[in-house]
Write a structure and sequence with these properties.
heterodimer, A: mainly alpha, flat, B: alpha/beta, Amidase signature (AS) enzymes, eleven-stranded mixed β-sheet
């Protein structure tokens, strides 16, 4: 499939990665090269073949639905940029989203 | 003391138990080697103080006769494993300053067995690469040099720092992770043993995720026995990783030294690539001769979908990566780059925090999962993956283990292949099928190239049959008698 700048801008928005305008042409080229290469999979007959969804044959285990961990907000916040301390409520902070 | 850094884990274990050496001496020797070898850039974070206090604890346990299977053994940990309170970066700018409040299950298992942590090793950013040149912390240098050529070579990747730490005698063993060849290819490039266990053998909990259906942790060591010892400590069921398998961990060391008489080893014809270096082909033939001499029987097999493995991988792995890496948004940990809105902050943080290769893969992954393309790319690749797994199932009706080269070349110069992502991806042509099928694979050093660089042979086993791999790898190791050492070492 042929990529264009608009598509790359759309993907970059979905991926939340800012791509500078001057980098767009190069990015279109790089991604196109990779897509052209993987396109060869179309030559494989996969009719009636189920997609592989698990690398090993295991049935995922069930577990009791109960709290098994937690209760250490200060630890959870320790790596955040400018958090609100546990004493003052214990929050992550982000730029204002509601006016 | 320099001689201490040349010991294998098995020898050091015997000497520690016999009280001939202490873990403090052994650890100090490795801490000194780490300091002498900084130019190799194998470590992102060194933890010498922690190492020495862990060594003292191990000495105490050994004195009381209750040291674990790795009591007092200094190891290096790939900086993709979360280590409690110790900077964990995945070699990415986006994890700036991240000190996990928890320990990965695999590293916790190693500490429980008494091992000593020397530090966190360099890698390709988020384990995406085959040359350890995409790290935010700079490239790692292979301690091996071509004969008569002093240009620095890549150690392979993504577990390049781990490979170099072990090859250069800085660590006795190291953890790696392998998504498409990231343990086995650097092991081959640095003259080491590297094992990717069966998917589900080791817990992935606390390992920074790249492609969750392919990632698996494994040991990197200088001998097959050392790999067996390390895997025994790393492996096991973990309720915190629902894909880790509730099977008992066998005594892997017991598999060593067993006869391989009558064992059938498969030679896949599709691994004979056009234009493959003659010395790789020669090495492969040599491996066949060794196994035959030990009484095993070669069987021609076919893995017909091999050539589609890399394209399938470069859809599946980026797709899973784009999903796994969505968590890096500047909110809860790591780098934050301000923006004029919440989305602006996300976009700036991820543009600045991810390197070029990671951005490229996240974008590819986002594209192949996006509406309208999901069936054409992602589902198609997952169907091809089924066919690749089926190839192995068919092959194992005719053989017990498969022998191939590990990589299509020896180590190359830093900067080579840098402008051509696809040429770089081809490094994993012999290893990636194993991840797609979820099987175990081991690389064993088997000889030197004409330029004097290490080359590896790969053995691929049935699911959860690491024991056969260790047994056959032991035969290859003994026959190859690989005693060469890199020119640079601690």
């Amino acid at each position: 499939m042929a990529l264009d700048k608009a598509t790359v801008v759309r993907i970059a928005t979905l991926a939340r990665i800012k791509v500078a305008d001057q980098d767009l042409d190069r990015m279109v080229g790089e991604l196109q090269t990779i897509l052209n290469w993987v396109e060869e999979l179309n030559s494989v007959n996969t009719e009636g073949v189920e997609p592989m969804t698990s690398a090993v044959e295991v049935t995922l285990p069930m577990r009791e639905d109960r709290v098994s961990d937690g209760g250490y907000a200060a630890k959870v916040l320790a790596n955040a940029t400018e958090p609100v301390s546990v004493g003052e409520g214990g929050f992550f902070t982000v730029p204002k989203v509601v006016e | 003391m320099r001689g201490l850094t040349d010991l294998t884990i098995a020898d050091a274990r015997a000497q520690l138990r016999a009280k001939k050496i202490s873990s403090r001496e052994l650890t100090q020797a490795h801490v000194d080697a780490m300091a002498r070898c900084r130019e190799l850039n194998a470590f992102i974070t060194e933890t010498p103080d922690r190492a020495l206090s862990m060594a003292d604890a191990a000495d105490k346990a050994l004195k009381g006769g209750d040291g674990g299977t790795l009591a007092g053994i200094p190891l290096a940990i790939k900086d993709l494993f979360c280590t409690e309170g110790v900077l964990t970066t995945a070699a990415s700018h986006i994890l700036d300053g991240f000190r996990p409040p928890y320990e990965s299950t695999v590293s916790a298992n190693l500490w429980k067995a008494g091992a000593v942590m020397l530090g966190k090793t360099n890698l390709d950013e988020f384990a995406m690469g085959s040359s350890n040149t995409t790290s935010y912390y700079g490239p790692v240098h292979n301690p091996w040099r071509k004969r008569g050529d002093n240009r620095p070579l890549v150690p392979g990747g993504s577990s390049g720092g781990s490979a170099v730490a072990v090859a250069a005698r800085i660590a006795m063993g190291a953890t790696g992770t392998d998504t498409g060849g990231s343990i086995r290819q650097p092991a081959a490039f640095c003259g080491l043993v590297g094992l990717k266990p069966t998917y589900g053998r080791c817990s992935r909990w606390g390992i920074v995720a790249f492609a969750s259906s392919l990632d698996q942790a494994g040991p990197m060591t200088r001998t097959v026995r050392d790999a067996a010892i390390m895997l025994g400590a790393m492996a096991g069921h973990d309720p915190k990783d629902s894909t880790s398998v509730p099977r008992p961990v066998p005594d892997y060391e017991a598999a060593l030294g067993q006869s391989i008489k009558g064992l059938r080893f498969g030679i896949p014809k599709e691994y004979r690539l056009d234009g493959m270096a003659p010395e790789i082909e020669k090495l492969w033939q040599q491996g066949i001769t060794w196994l035959k001499a030990a009484g095993a029987e070669p069987v021609d097999i076919s893995l017909p979908h091999t050539k589609h493995a890399l394209p399938a991988y470069y859809i599946i792995a980026p797709a899973e990566a784009s999903s796994n890496l969505a968590r890096y948004d500047g909110v809860r940990f790591g780098l934050r780059v301000p923006g004029d809105s919440l989305d602006g902050m996300y976009e700036n943080t991820r543009a600045k925090g991810f390197g070029a290769e990671v951005r490229r893969r996240v974008l590819i992954g986002t594209y192949v999962l996006s509406a309208g393309y999901y069936d054409a790319y992602y589902l198609k690749a997952q169907r091809v993956r089924s066919l690749i797994a089926r190839d192995f199932t068919e092959a194992y009706r005719k053989c017990d283990v498969i022998l191939t080269p590990t990589a299509p070349s020896a180590a190359f110069a830093i900067g080579e292949k840098a402008d051509d992502p696809i040429a770089m991806y081809l490094n994993d042509v012999f290893t990636v099928t194993v991840n797609l099928a979820g099987l175990p694979g081991i690389s064993v050093p088997a000889g030197l190239s004409a330029d004097g660089l290490p080359l590896g042979l790969q053995l691929i086993g049935r699911a959860f049959d690491e024991e056969t791999l260790f047994c056959v790898a032991d035969v290859v190791e003994k026959a190859a008698n690989f005693t060469a050492k890199p020119s640079l070492n601690g």
